[in-house]
Amino acid sequence: MFAGHDTTALSLSWTLYFIGLDRDIQHRIHEEMDSILGTNRDVTIDDIKQMHYLEAVIKESLRLRPPVPTIIRAIKEDLNLGKYTIPKGVSLCLMIDSLHQDPDIYPEPLLFKPERFLSEGNSSANPFAYLPFSAGVRNCIGQKFALIELKIVLAKVLLNYSFESLDPRDRIIEYNAIVSKPKGGLRVRVSHRSGV
């Protein structure tokens, strides 16, 4: 399976992993969920619209670990790039993960910094510098649904639980099977939040 299931499941896994690496980020999410949801109740569309920090965390996770790290596109007409011409019919491989880790676009690109996506923090960036769902006419039709699904699941889980990632980032080995997967999975310790 490719679209819809694996991509969302992997995005959820990576996001929980990154959250589990940083107690301050997790604490800030817990505060946001407590203030928006209070008790354990159903999440509404109005609630989702208020989850600004959680959305920034999701976007940063998708930046560092786009579910589909490469996209192949066939060129329909000659493409001029500076002094080079790429003839029509050629297939181009777009390295999304490399784009998302370009230090000219994202300073300190390997750091997990959700603040990049808060308010005007990233508004000057080219819209094609962030492509976890591709872009243009061939972008993912399920993008909005996936983001809402991620927010709802993460909100409900993080309202009640805390996560601690057990392996540092440099110990995670990834492989690409169309989607980028961690070999052996991602190990986290889950604990019930006290007082919830």
UniProtKB/TrEMBL annotation:
Per its Swiss-Prot or TrEMBL entry, what cofactor is needed?
A: heme
Q: Where in the cell is it found?
A: Endoplasmic reticulum membrane
Keywords recorded for this protein, A-Z: Endoplasmic reticulum, Heme, Iron, Membrane, Metal-binding, Monooxygenase, Oxidoreductase
Question: Mind telling me which Pfam families this protein's record contains?
Answer: p450 (PF00067)
Where along this sequence does the record place binding of heme? 140
The UniProt entry's GO CC annotations, sorted and at most eight, read: endoplasmic reticulum membrane
GO MF, one term, reads:
oxidoreductase activity, acting on paired donors, with incorporation or reduction of molecular oxygen
**Keyword Glycoprotein assigned:** no
Question: SUPFAM superfamilies attached here?
Answer: Cytochrome P450
Asked if the Swiss-Prot or TrEMBL record annotates the protein with the keyword Metal-binding, the reply is yes
Principal cellular location given in the protein's record: endoplasmic reticulum
Recorded family membership: Belongs to the cytochrome P450 family.
Checking PANTHER family in the record gives:
CYTOCHROME P450 4C3-RELATED, CYTOCHROME P450 FAMILY 4
Name assigned to this protein: Cytochrome P450
According to its UniProt entry, this protein's organism is Oppiella nova
